[in-house]
Amino acid sequence: MSALYDRIGTGYSATRRTEPRIEALIRGALGDARSVINVGAGAGAYEPTDREVLAIEPSATMIAQRRPGAAPALQARAEGLPLPDQSFDAALAVNTLHHWTDLRAGLRELRRVARKRIVIFMRDPPSGEPFWLTEDYLPSLDPSRKNSAIIDAIRGELSSVESLPFQLPRDCADGLFAAYWARPEMYLDAEIRRNISNFALAEEGELAKGLARLRADLASGEWDRKYGDLRRLESLDLGHRVLVAELA
User: Fold this and answer.
1) Is the pLDDT of residue 15 over 80?
2) Left, alpha or beta for 208 (phi > 0: left; psi -120 to 50: alpha)?
3) Contacts of 197 (CB under 8 A, 6+ apart)
C-alpha cells in the first residue's frame, strides 16, 4: 500500500489531524509502556510524545510529512519488522491493518517485537450504528466484511483482546472515512476525499454516481429529512474500537 499513499498522501496532514479524544484513548490503552513501536505510522498523528517511539512506515511520502522533532522513522513494512524480538514495551497500529498485504504475518510481527501489549485502533462497522454514506450512496465502500475478517484474525493471532469502544465526535479533527457522519457536505469536497483511502480505491463511475445522489439529496433537503437528527448529536458509535492485547 506504500504506492497508494505515495500517490494520495501528499496533502494528508491537512485533513488527517490528530483527534485529541482518540489520542487520549490510545494513550490510556498503552498503559505503563515506556517504549512504543508505531507500525503503519503515516505522518505520526497518534504517537505519544512522552515515551520512546520508533515509527515504521512503508511510504516515503508519508515519512516526509512527519513534523520536525517527531520520532525517528524506518521505511519498512509490518510483515517484516527490522527489529529484535521483544524490543519494545508496546506495539501500536492505528488505522493501518486493512492495508497490510499479509495480515496474520503482520500481527505475528507485532507480537514478536512487543514485550507487554499490542494496541490497535480500527473500525468494526457491524459493532456500531449503520453509516448512511455506505447504506444509501456508496455501498461498495462498506468495509464491514473486510474489517470483520480483520477482527477475526486479531482474535485468532492474539490472546486476551479487550475491545474499548469509541464514539466518533461530531467535530472529529481527524478526517477518517466516517468522520463527517453529521457533516455530509464535507464528502463533496475533493480534497477531503483525496486523503481517505476508501475513496482512492473506489471505482470512479460508481463514486461519481453516489456523490451526485448525495449532492442532489442535500440540495433538495432529502438528506436532512432522513438523517437531519444526526446534526444535533455530539457523537455516534460507528464501530471505532481500540483493541488491547496483553502479552505479559
Assistant:
1) no
2) alpha
3) 1, 4, 5, 8, 99, 177
Give the residue-averaged pLDDT of 177-200.
94
Q: How far apart are CA 176 and CA 76, in angstroms?
A: 24
Cα separation, 245 vs 242, whole angstroms: 10
Residue 143: the pLDDT is: 92
| Inter-residue contact 181 to 131 (CB < 8 Å) | yes
Residue 200: all three cell numbers together: 482512492
Q: Are 115 and 88 in contact (CB under 8 A)?
A: yes
In this structure, which amino acid lies at residue 66?
R
**Whole-prediction pTM:** 0.92
CA–centroid distance for 151 within its chain: 14
* Topology of the domain covering 2-246: Rossmann fold (3.40.50)
For β-strands 73-74 and 35-39, DSSP reports them as unpaired
Give the number of other Cβ atoms within 10 Å of residue 166's Cβ.
21
pLDDT digits 0-9 by tens, 92-148? 999 999 999 999 999 999 999 999 999 999 999 999 999 999 999 999 999 999 999
Give the start-to-end residue ranges of the domains of the chain: 2-246
